[in-house]
Amino acid sequence: MVVHVSAITPVSLIIIGVIALLIFGPKKLPELGKAMGSTLREFRHATKGLTEDDDDVKKNVIEHKDNDQQTK
Questions:
Q1: What is the C-alpha to C-alpha distance for residues 29 and 43, in angstroms, rounded to an integer?
Q2: What's the rounded Cα separation, in Å, for the pair 16 and 53?
Q3: Could you tell me the pTM of the whole model?
Q4: Helix (H, G, I), strand (E, B) or coil at 29
């Protein structure tokens, strides 16, 4: 099942928040939010590194092809 971003409405976010509050309680909820934020930040940092590595590989391939064409 594919969930589109437009399917997440403010009402659904409120419902999710209320359910999380009931499950975890008001004391644990800020800790969970902080943990989720740091996890998201680490994930973004890791994926940024992967895309930069991919760009470097593409540049090296293009440079290698250019060098091969110049030597011929």
A1: 21
A2: 37
A3: 0.47
A4: helix
The CA distance from 3 to 1, in Å, is 7
By residue range, what is the domain housing residue 52?
Answer: 5-71
The separation between CA 66 and the C-alpha centre of its own chain, rounded to angstroms, equals 34
What is d(CA 5, CA 11) in angstroms, rounded to the nearest whole number? 14
How many domains does the structure of the chain reveal?
Answer: 1
The pLDDT tens digits for 2-58 are 655 567 788 988 998 899 899 989 899 889 889 999 999 998 888 887 776 666 777
Q: Which of 56, 52, 33 is nearest to 44 (CA)?
A: 52
Q: HSE-up of 53 (CA within 13 Å, CB side)?
A: 6
